[in-house]
Amino acid sequence: MDTVQPGGALAGDGLSSLSSSPATIFSRWTFAVSQRYQHLLDKTVPYILYRWIACLFVALIYALRVYLVQGFHIITYGLGIYMLNLLIGFLSPQIDPEINDGPSLPTRGTDEFRPFVRRLPEFKFWYSVTKAFCIAFLMTFFAVFDVPVFWPILLFYWLLLFILTMRRQIMHMVKYRYVPFSFGKQVCANTQCLLTYSTYCFFFYKCE
């Protein structure tokens, strides 16, 4: 003989109402949108040139906006500092040989080959730059961010910081003998040098 649990129907109704609650529906919708957005981003990974052209277009729109309103210089200064920080991450190896005792970059042809791995990959660099310009563009529509400031001073500070930072980065490259750029497949016939052939590694180092 079958027995009926008194609270079974109520429990089923509770679960169905919980699954159809506004919070659950919104959570599912945001998850689906984020998945779709990530899928579109993944499809743009191979198109490096087109991605950077789009980024340049966004940057020109922002520059035109700032020029027309003649303001928001503090936002531009903060954007420049953020771009400089991203650039340093893009040019730096993931494992800094100066502070890490692990595997280092090879400096001789007899060393074991280790591909150059950036601290900030190219795709994340592009995505962060583009997103930063979009956010800065939206901020220019709010007067609270238009702080009065003498912009030549900010420009001078940024140029000074850029020169000092890049000087330190170049000295680091010279010290550990690496240049984090290459174009296409490179082959060296000399047995005393070794060039990487991967375009995605963007790595070239000289040998003694």
From TrEMBL:
- What is the protein's given name? Uncharacterized protein
